[in-house]
Amino acid sequence: NEIFSAVNASLAEYDLPMQMSDEAVLVELFALLDVPRDVLSYRLEQLVLNAIRAHRNERAISAATSLDDQIAKLRALLHNDSASVDAVGVPRLSIEETWNLEACNETMHAVLGEAFNWMEVSAQSTDEEVWERLLSLLNMTDTEQEDTIKFDDQRTLLRVVFADVRVRRANEWRAQQVFDELIVTVKAEDPSLAAEEAKKAATQDRYNANKIVWLQKLIGFAEERGIADDAASTSETVDNSSSSENLAHDVSKELMFDFSEVEDWEVDWSSVNVSTWRSELRNLQDAASARANSTALSPQALRDGEKHEHYARLLKLPRLIDETLSTWIDPADDLSDKQIFHELMRMMGLSETVEPRLMRTMIEAVKQHRLRREREEAERPDWSENGPEALSERAALGHSFPTLKPCNGYVNRGGDGNDFAVFIATLLHAIGAHVRVSTGCSGNATLPPPVPKGPPWEVAAHEAAFAANAWRGTRTTVCQLFAEVRLGKHPTKVVSWIRAWLPGSKWIGKAYHYRLDKQGYVWLNLDWIDSHRVQRPGAPYKYFDQVIIYHPTTLTWEVEGDEFDSAGQPRLKYSTVHSLRVGLR
After folding, report:
1. What is the largest distance, in Å, between two alpha-carbon atoms of the chain?
2. Rounded alpha-carbon distances, angstroms, from residue 244 to 6, 55, 234, 254, 278
3. Which of 3-12, 128-137, 290-299 is modeled with the greatest confidence?
4. In the predicted model, what is the mean pLDDT of residues 265-291?
5. Is 124 left (phi over 0), alpha (psi -120 to 50) or beta?
6. Band of pLDDT at residue 229, cut at 50, 70 and 90
7. Burial readout 340-356 (b: 16 or more C-beta within 10 A, e: otherwise)
8. How many angstroms separate the CA atoms of 555 and 547, rounded?
């Protein structure tokens, strides 16, 4: 009972796929507990295995219930049955999940993905096998599913989502396989990590040797008690080089010791399968012979083999890192090559201190991955090539003298581009940078009607009416704030500044817009891009009828079109706008 409670508590927080054998779960459990397997007795190992089987049997019941719930929800969704309820009377589907085809599509992706998780669909299974199993669970035929919800092209929702989910899960499986291979490769290439793996391998060899003895004792004891092999299994375990009788003879010949300890192992002899023991024993002995033969090579042959394995690992390391980073690292995180390396090591659960040559090789692979992404990013057209962002993307201030809240009110709170202008200008001014804030106003702007606050079908009806009537809106005055930072008098140095301080592929191949003042200083635009998640400086300047520029350092202001500022100093009547494109490295 104590062993079962301990195993149950240890495994409760982990996923245990059905295709994962009890023996594999036992190996993972010992690894989590950091317990070497070679120190355990056969009796204790069997007790833990029995506890694992009991735990998995209990989990199988709840897993089957969860799968039934997902299948029932999926069946209701296919027939658009909003009246379907679960065992306690709660509707399986909400109106928001089924009110139109797009909502049904999103719900189907979520439900089918969850159902596949409980079905434990393997990536190696063919689509035909998984499709047949899914229809069997749904209690439907292929013909019947053709009568369910369809897209405009007459493809059923189930078939389309099934294909999408299968592709996504296959990609996830492939990414996990590459990631696991990367961990193995790094461990084998680093001397300290390789030494740890060698210790684990030596522990496994000692355990296998112990298990060979256990199996020999069990088989010998079974022979003494006259327990026969299972007939069906015996026919499948005939060795290519020696028969089962020869193996039994060898066991009997080797075991010249007392079998009394076997009686204390609490083996249920009424249900044992001796042929399974014989097959397992043969496999262990063959593996031990293969390892012995590999170590029997000459020292020169061993060194040559290690050298070939070393170069093979170095050859595939860049590919593994590239595929892993393409899946796991978001380029919008703006991490340096070394930071990405440390993040990669953290993801693999390895120490950040590895052999220097290996670290340089990995960082170089990270660099090559970044350069590849930069080239691909530069080949894509930039949205700014089509001109500045529309004024309608940001809420209007209404006039050129807005009432603003204190800057500390923006910390840890959401806001729009106007709030960002005040916040970033205050932040840069506090660290000594030269900044200015401009208020731009346009009296010929068009704003769309506000989106109603309500359920999704009301929002959809509003958007449909807006599209059908080709509504152009009413013209009104719109004012917006944007900040600028001064970067010296040499525009070409902006390129060096971007490369030095703005790592990441999204800064390359872009045009950066700035204005020049009367003294020739470069003022880089820091306007917020409301229609894009990823932000960058140097966005195109928007078109305004009037622009007022405020200088927080000198507490002066100037108006575009005037020849003097508020202090009476001469200025350019109109600030000239320039752009500078940053190409590939």
Report:
1. 113
2. 39, 35, 8, 15, 8
3. 128-137
4. 87
5. alpha
6. low
7. bbebbbeeeeeeeebee
8. 17
Q: What distance lies between CA 11 and its chain's CA centroid?
A: 24
Give me the phi and psi of 319, to 5 degrees please. Answer: -65, -45
Residue 283: name the closest of 18, 17, 23, 19 by CA.
23
Task: Choose between 366 and 20: higher pLDDT.
Answer: 366
Helix (H, G, I), strand (E, B) or coil at 440: strand
Secondary element (H or E) of residue 263: none
Average pLDDT over residues 545-552: 93
Give the sign of the dihedral formed by CA 58, CA 59, CA 65, CA 68: negative
CB atoms within 10 A of CB 484: 26
Determine the Cα angle at 408 with ends 402 and 409, to 5°: 60
Beta carbons within 8 Å of 341's beta carbon, 6+ residues apart: 359, 362, 363, 366
8 A C-beta contact, residue 96 and residue 456: yes
Strand partners, 522: 516
Cα gap 526→20, rounded to integer Å: 54
Residue 266: what pLDDT? 79
Long-range contacts of 460-467 (CB under 8 A, 24+ apart): 460/100
Per the CB < 8 A criterion, the answer to whether 436 and 525 are in contact is no
Phi, psi of 514 (to 5 degrees): -150, 165
Beta pairing partners, 513: 579
> Rounded to whole angstroms, how far apart are CA atoms 549 and 574?
12
Out of 3-17, 57-71, 314-328, 357-371, least confident range: 3-17
